[in-house]
Specification:
alpha/beta, 10 helices, 24% strand
């Protein structure tokens, strides 16, 4: 289990992490989300003692990281897949980690096999592709067979097979009762992997809830309806006290989850329905809704590269600028 209490980190006047308090529990995959600059990486670094908090506390299974003996046996982490000596082979990279934490040599072969790198175990890491580097980083996280796993962008550089593999690996680790904490910008992948979400923005906690509750609380649910008897259906639903919005193209929408009631009303009046489908926002839409005010960097589609919106191509840098 990972416990944060009032965790704060300042860099001069900049507050990167602001009074974060939450718990990452075992047995589930907890997703860690936030816009760029939200403080996710800083938070993860403080969990591992790589950055010292300005205030607050963080504990790994009840202890500070720097008090853990053989820390790889408590928590395994992938923060930067490139954090390795490129001149060492994959095997020797992991062997050095193992020897520093009292882990037997045989475990190196086991994790190399788990991540699919046995065939390149004796090759130097500097020749690895991004995906192979990710697999090696994941092997390092698994090396101590820890009860807590932490991954920052674990699918970076992986092909579809690799993404499927890491998704199932994280679910399997959680099913074993381990604590799995994962940060990613790929919302579609997070929606398939995480059971619980912790969302931060500008260093502050925005949400600490289940995946289902997060989407429900930060999005609009509605029922989409199509019928060849649209006018009659409108009258019937109105008489039943159901508010309907016409959205064009013969499509009707009813706010909330009233699909069963709508179906019963339509059946009672022998109305034909071509579509009666509950609609719910995706994780990405819910995330964008919640974090809209916390995004530090905004792009504007109507702005031409290098200048203000609609600036003439040869006058983007001011009245005294001329082409060379």
């Amino acid at each position: 289990m990972i416990e944060l209490e009032g965790l704060t980190k300042r860099y001069g006047e900049k507050v990167a992490v602001n009074n974060l308090t939450f718990t990452v529990r075992p047995g589930i995959v907890t997703g860690f989300l936030g816009p760029n600059g939200a403080g996710k990486s800083t938070t993860m670094r403080m969990l591992l003692g790589l950055d010292r908090p300005t205030a607050g506390d963080v504990r790994i299974d009840g202890q500070h990281y720097d008090r853990l003996k053989d820390p790889l046996k408590y928590i395994g982490a992938l923060l930067d897949a490139k954090a390795m000596h490129g001149g060492r082979s994959a095997f020797n990279h992991l062997l050095c980690l193992a020897q520093s934490n009292g882990i037997p040599r045989s475990r190196v072969r086991e994790v190399l096999d788990t991540v699919g790198l046995t065939s390149v175990a004796r090759k130097k890491a500097k020749g690895f592709s991004l995906g192979m580097g990710q697999r090696l980083g994941i092997a390092g996280a698994l090396l101590g067979d820890p009860r807590i796993l932490m991954f920052d962008e674990p699918v970076n550089g992986l092909d579809p097979e690799g993404i499927h593999w890491i998704r199932n690996l994280m679910k399997s680790l959680a099913a074993q009762g381990r604590t799995v904490f994962v940060s990613s910008h790929l919302m579609s992948e997070m929606a398939l992997t995480a059971d619980h979400l912790v969302v931060i923005g500008q260093g502050r906690l925005l949400a600490d809830t289940s995946m289902a509750d997060f989407i429900a609380q930060n999005s609009r649910s509605y029922v989409r309806i199509r019928s060849p008897q649209r006018e009659r259906l409108l009258d019937v639903l109105h008489d039943a006290g159901i508010t309907v919005v016409e959205t064009g193209g013969g499509v009707l929408e009813v706010a909330g989850d009233k699909s069963e009631r709508i179906g019963e009303v339509a059946a009672r009046h022998q109305l034909v329905l071509h579509e009666l489908s509950p609609q719910q926002a995706s994780l990405e839409e819910a995330f964008m809704q919640l974090t809209a005010e916390s995004v530090e960097y905004h792009a504007h589609s109507d702005e031409q590269p290098g200048g203000r919106p609609d600036a003439p191509a040869d006058r983007r840098w001011g009245d005294d600028w001329t082409r060379s």
